[in-house]
Amino acid sequence: MPTGDSGHDVLDPLTARDRSWPCLRQFCVFLENRVGRLNELLRHLESLDVRVLAISIVDSVDCANVRLIFNQTDRAREKLELANYLFSESDVVGVELDDSDKPLATVCTALLKAELNIHHVAMLRYRRRGRSAVAMYVDDVDLALRTLEDAGLRIITEGDLADQDEYL
Hints:
Strand content: 25-35%
CATH superfamily of the largest domain: ACT domain
Domain ACT: 92-168
Protein name: Acetolactate synthase
Radius of gyration: 18 Å
InterPro entries: ACT-like_dom_sf, ACT_dom, ACT_dom_pair
Low-confidence stretches: none
Organism: Schlesneria paludicola
CATH architecture of the largest domain: 2-Layer Sandwich
Pfam family, one: ACT_8
């Protein structure tokens, strides 16, 4: 294990939160706001091994920020890097919607009780046991995960998306 300047062990950042971390990775890709740029991006990324499972776009006059979630995070990152796209990554919480009459309200109520703010939400192209799912960017990922699990809701992981054989 590498050691720092002070002689203390330094953890490899990849070991801090590996694939067992129960969050999804969201990519935010910066694009020029020109006709055809989104098409170029999606044609480059989508393939037999990489599927876009969620997308949202925030645009302005000059640029667009495209938020994406993939079934194969590492492969998508590799494709973005090799094509020299400007992008950032963030953790989002994926949660399977229950069978209640108001599944989104159930999720929002649980997070409200914990006083968590939801910044944005994307529906996932996900279907298991007849249920769909959402991905949410929240103030505090750790607290959101605990809160949703305590409310009896199922958290969606990257492994769930990679193993998904039923897409909407």
